[in-house]
Amino acid sequence: HSQRSRPSTAVVSSHRADSTNICKHLGPLRCFQDFFKKHFLPGGLLQERDKRAKWHGIPTLLQKLFESSHPNSDLSQAHSFLKVLSSQLSMEAMSFVTEDRKTAQESTFPNTYTFDLFGGVDLLVEILMRPTLTMQKKKPKMNDDLVKDCLSVLYNCCICTEGVTKSLAARDDFVLFLFTLMTNKKTFLQTATLIEDILGVKKEMIHLEGIPNLSGLVQSFDQQQLANFCRILSVTISEPDVGNDDKHTLLAKNAQQKRNASPSRAEVNQVTLLNIPGFIERLCKLATRKVSEATGANFLQELEDWYTWLDNALVLDALMQMATEEAEQSSTESSDESSLSTSPLRHRLPQSMKIVHEIMYKVEVLYVLCVLLMGRQRNQVHKMLAEFRLIPGLNNLFDKLIWRKYTASNHVVHGQNENCDCSPEISFKIQFLRLLQSFSDHHENKYLLLNSQELNELSAISMKANIPEVEALVNTDRSLVCDGKKGLLTRLLTVMKREPPDSSFRFWQARAVESFLRGATSYADQMFLLKRGLLEHILFCIIDSGCTSRDVLQSYFDLLGELMKFNIDAFKRFNKYVNTPEKFQTFLTQINSSLVDSNMLVRCIVLSLDRFESQTEDVKVVEVLSECCLLSYMARVENRLSFLFRLINIINVQTLTQENVSCLNTSLVILMLARRKAKLPFYLNALREKEYAEKYPGCLLNNFHNLLRFWQRHYLNKDKDSTCLENSSCIPFSYWKETVSVLLGSDRTSLCAIASYIDEPFMDLDKDLLED
């Protein structure tokens, strides 16, 4: 969601001095209506102050609005005063949107500030909520145009005056009341815009179940309203942002989980949504519905023009509504009479805006589906998305909407900022890739990304290799897979290989493909991708493309690790591509430049080497073992030790995050394999010798001991899913636990205990390090 720069209260123009003086007379009576009830300020004094402070008659208009909005009035006169006020305030709001969103120091909004200062915001809230306060059985109905104008003025105040949004957000009764206004299609856009702004600053997430008749409300929405409602929902089902999740330390996360054992409000809201009949089915229809194609060379330029100033999909809705009304008007008038039919707006909106409009809808819908896929009800959501054919529907949209060929040049990252998602097209593609990643990750439904022919190809690969088919493949419902000549995964591979080096999508594409391979290693899945040239593409990107982005390189290292793990054919292909010492050295340089990024690949090579060394009866394996430069490099014990030293040295308990904890697990893999071959004492002694050589005795081993104690508390937690470690390494989790226990043994005579290798003076095993 866009973050608007709001004007600071410190830099509103000098009229505030007079405003502050008048406030001293008001005392605690901030609301202007309360003030007028007391008849405290004579009209002459008010007019005199108005001129000096340049209030532009706003206090007087507010007085008239108050007096004409008493409970028994028909509010028609009040509406006329509100329209005058609205025109004054809307000019400031428009300047805020169109003046390149200038900072507070450059752009001030005195009219809006004055309106709020004299209680205008509170008065409009009271007028809007008045029907809910009546004791009558039949609630009085307010004029739709009056409601729309009240909402528009409140929104203008929110974007132009600091603190208004927060004060509205603090009123739970008003926030829940706003949702009831969404039942009226005529006021829906204004209501949704205001709710989105308010929820964006609300300190506590709202309870969706507290919204009156939420199920009926959602079911009453048409598809357009539902798409915009998703924009609001995204704030209510996402966990509060506490900074980059990967950078948040595991110590802090674990402590927070202990404090908050019950489901979070976001998780409760997710369940509430899933219980609404037909909700997921309608989102799937929205995500996969087709739009008419826009043609013409000017499309990209028009898209660029529009997204630089359009704030969100709600503004687009207003423009689309205006365009539709203009079209209807022009159809009833002769062409020479209708100036609208030839205006630039009328000429340009329909063809370019419909696609942008649909794209922005889909961004919101895909985001909600993605969050639900990553929640506690993942399996329930998966079942529904499969049943409602989300994946085949997206596959049918891929070439015509998601990845249109003529938008390739628009993929370059703006300003080299890899997190850029400023255009609707870029946001849409990234959200699509994130959805694929969440859908495929460790779930048997991943095979829905293929079509029937591709599933048959997987079966044939297994048969040729004389290995059983994966159970998930056998159980895949063929009626729910992709249609057409290519499945969604194959289409993704095609565009991935065409992506320019500086594209913002390389990271997300690699993540989406990697998620298909994650979990228990499948030879058939790997061969399916190897046959399509994926390994050569990855190696080109790492070695030859000049890529310097750490995020992109990390995603390629992780993908390469999953693609090559235990696969002798992949190592043979690697050796064929990396066919010179210079190429191999470049590859090693990339790996060594950041082990946090490349350690999953290092783990893959170590695990694969260990397995191949036990298959020496296979002629093909023996041949690759002797020829492959990568396997030969890792076979040298000094190289494995070098990786082990650095993996332990770059992390400690206080800095462990979801991103770098893999370094700890990779170091454990190296030691578990050494233990299997009774070489654990050799490795531990090598660590000790390294410490003394670096003149830091006890440093490495004390740190590693503390890391392993943290590992026990983190992974042996009853809520922790340890199957990922087991599946990715093909080492039983019981052996992981056993190895850690042996390493942490307190018997200093044990050759497999870390404590045995730390001399007494340097023993620094902090017993309280992990205590709360």
Task: Produce the secondary structure layout.
Layout: H1 16-26, H2 32-37, H3 43-53, H4 58-67, H5 76-98, H6 110-117, H7 120-133, H8 144-160, H9 164-169, H10 172-181, H11 188-201, H12 214-220, H13 223-237, H14 250-259, H15 265-274, H16 279-288, H17 299-307, H18 313-332, H19 344-373, H20 378-387, H21 390-402, H22 424-440, H23 452-464, H24 471-474, H25 488-498, H26 506-517, H27 523-530, H28 534-544, H29 550-564, H30 568-577, H31 581-593, H32 595-612, H33 619-627, H34 629-635, H35 637-649, H36 661-676, H37 680-693, H38 699-715, H39 723-729, H40 733-743
Helix pairs in contact: 4-5, 5-8, 7-8, 8-11, 10-11, 11-13, 11-18, 13-19, 16-19, 16-21, 17-19, 18-19, 19-22, 22-26, 23-27, 25-26, 26-29, 28-29, 28-31, 29-32, 30-33, 31-32, 32-35, 32-36, 35-36, 36-40
Describe this structure in words.
The chain is mainly alpha-helical and 772 residues long. 63% of the residues lie in helices and 0% in strands. The protein is built from 40 helices and no strands. The longest helix is centred in the middle third of the chain and has 30 residues, at 344-373. The protein is elongated.
